[in-house]
Amino acid sequence: MSSSIDILVVGSVAFDSVETPFGKVEDVLGGSAIYFSVAASFFSKVGIVAVVGEDFPSLYLEFLKEKNIDIGGLKKVKGSTFRWKGKYGFDLNEALTLDTRLNVFQDFRPEIPERYRDAEYVFLANIDPELQLRVLDQVENPKLVALDTMNFWIEGKPDKLKEAVARVDIFVINEAEAREFMQEPNLVKAAKKILSLGPKTLIVKRGEYGALMFHGDSVFSAPAYPLEFIYDPTGAGDSFAGGFMGYLANTRNAEDGVIRQAMIFGSVMASFNVEDFSLNRMKYLTYPEIERRFREFKKLCTFEDIT
Amino acid sequence: MSSSIDILVVGSVAFDSVETPFGKVEDVLGGSAIYFSVAASFFSKVGIVAVVGEDFPSLYLEFLKEKNIDIGGLKKVKGSTFRWKGKYGFDLNEALTLDTRLNVFQDFRPEIPERYRDAEYVFLANIDPELQLRVLDQVENPKLVALDTMNFWIEGKPDKLKEAVARVDIFVINEAEAREFMQEPNLVKAAKKILSLGPKTLIVKRGEYGALMFHGDSVFSAPAYPLEFIYDPTGAGDSFAGGFMGYLANTRNAEDGVIRQAMIFGSVMASFNVEDFSLNRMKYLTYPEIERRFREFKKLCTFEDIT
């Protein structure tokens, strides 16, 4: 029996308040599960498992439905939706968190609806590794599982995180966090140590410098697209993961060549996402625009071999 | 009449004392003109214009001659050779300068020997822009001139630097310095402003993240090679420039496709250079190794276009 969705994502839904040198927004739609699923929706059918509060407007639910995202696993509970407030300086590389209110996210215990359990692709967005393990216990023999995390869990629950990482196919992490996790300043050595934990593939996100993939003996460097207008980097990493997983689920293939293309589709989605606040750019993004930017990435990296 | 050299480089020769987390060396051969010319020597015939003191050992001169570098313009004068002392932390991205003794470099006034003046390729390494202008006045109609600089001159002599940049074909600069020079935090905007000053091509060096080239409407991203063993980043930028210019001078062509390959050869030479202190790796480097790493760069960046 085939699942009703291609990709299951478990993560956060949030109201973000963000200030960058280019503007300011308050209580806009955000959260890892949202950025991921909207980016992935251009390629595949996604189902979300997450939690929101009573204050979550139906307007946002409509937006997700328009993107053909299955929101049957998006639970509304008593209380307020998770809120994050942050600020970026001119370099846009690191967010300064001004305020975090977990609210209903505090007691989030993901329960995977029956009809999501045989999803072939699973993305465990950045949440408590104990919850990520709980999801892994509920899904039925997925074809490919990817997991994201952050320094908070590396420092707070390193053993649980290692246990979760050992059970997934693809581990996605920021560069500084990869080094921190393995306590190894050299990235190539840190990558080898991470792969020895279990995952077949490691993706290292480097912000405005793109991303690196380590997969067996294969190393692939995906550049970031040099943009003249970057308004808000919030959600870039999850948009990357969404484009990446969306393309993989669409091709139903995880050969080296396909993973490389998926890395570029991920980079394409991240590059669109940062062009506006919240998911505003995604609202009017079209698939032909995605293909056009993919080809621009191709031009950006192309050089002839020596003969 | 054809020049006896392919590339003229004007820059510094130094004794470097360097400490990294992987070791420590004292008074070893360094300086921009040295790193540049040794890297370029694998591709083309280079002539150096620089100054050393009486303490400069003939052993080093022998090494340069072995690399087929023309040292007729390397002037030995009374006094001590330029000395630089620096330290790198674990991230290896930025050097902490502990001591700088200009010594004979203080009074360096480049004079281009007659037989170097019709060199078709000229590299103005990072020196006072007034001296770079002085060199430009002495050379006779070169085919291609590239210029490097640093924050010291951006802050101290911005107008002279702009005057020099306007007269060259290729401007090479670090990312943070490109932003600082144009007082523009967005790199793409800063690149456009720099190109409007006059040069046809801008190369932005990004350390361990590679380099970007802006050339008309063409943008090219060259990755850095992810290395497991990096011992000393000193001279990486000048080695990059040497590989880049060396390849261009060898092909005698500056079309977009050739410049892209030259960017990769530059990255290849930088990647070898950081594998040991001083120019130690260059001593036993062979051309087949250079070609092999070029092909590894090709693998690192390759992905299939979408159909």
CATH homologous superfamily caption of chain A? Ribokinase
Q: Kindly, what is the distance between the CA atoms of the first and last residues of chain A, rounded to a whole number of angstroms?
A: 51 Å
Shape of chain A: globular
Proper CATH architecture of chain A? 3-Layer(aba) Sandwich
What CATH calls the topology of chain A is UDP-N-acetylmuramoyl-L-alanine:D-glutamate ligase
Number of domains of chain A: 1
Oligomer: homodimer
Q: What structural category characterises the helix and strand content of chain A? A: alpha/beta
Taking all residues together, what is the mean pLDDT of chain A?
95
- What is the gyration radius of chain A calculated from CA atoms? 18 Å
**How many helix segments of chain A?**
11
SSE ordering of chain A? EEEHEHEEEEHEHHEHHEEEHHHH
Q: Just give the CATH class of chain A.
A: Alpha Beta
Q: Which spans of chain A of ≥5 residues are poorly predicted at pLDDT below 50?
A: none
Explain the overall architecture.
The structure is a homodimer of 307-residue chains. The termini of chain A are far apart. In chain A, helix 1 (32-40) crosses helix 8, helix 3 (129-138) packs parallel to helix 5 (158-165) and helix 8 runs antiparallel to helix 9. With 307 residues, chain A is of the alpha/beta class. In chain A, the strands form two sheets. Chain A has a nine-stranded mixed sheet with strand order 5-4-1-8-9-10-11-12-13, with helices on both faces. Chain A has helices at 32-40, 58-66, 129-138, 151-156, 158-165, 175-182, 187-196, 236-251, 256-273, 280-283, 287-301; strands spanning 7-10, 14-20, 23-30, 46-52, 70-76, 82-88, 95-101, 121-124, 144-148, 170-174, 201-205, 211-215, 218-222. Helix content of chain A is 37%, strand content 25%. Chain A has one domain: 3-Layer(aba) Sandwich (UDP-N-acetylmuramoyl-L-alanine:D-glutamate ligase). In chain A, a hairpin with a 2-residue loop joins strand 12 and strand 13. Chains A and B meet through helix 7, strand 13, helix 9 and helix 11 of A and helix 7, strand 13, helix 9 and helix 11 of B.
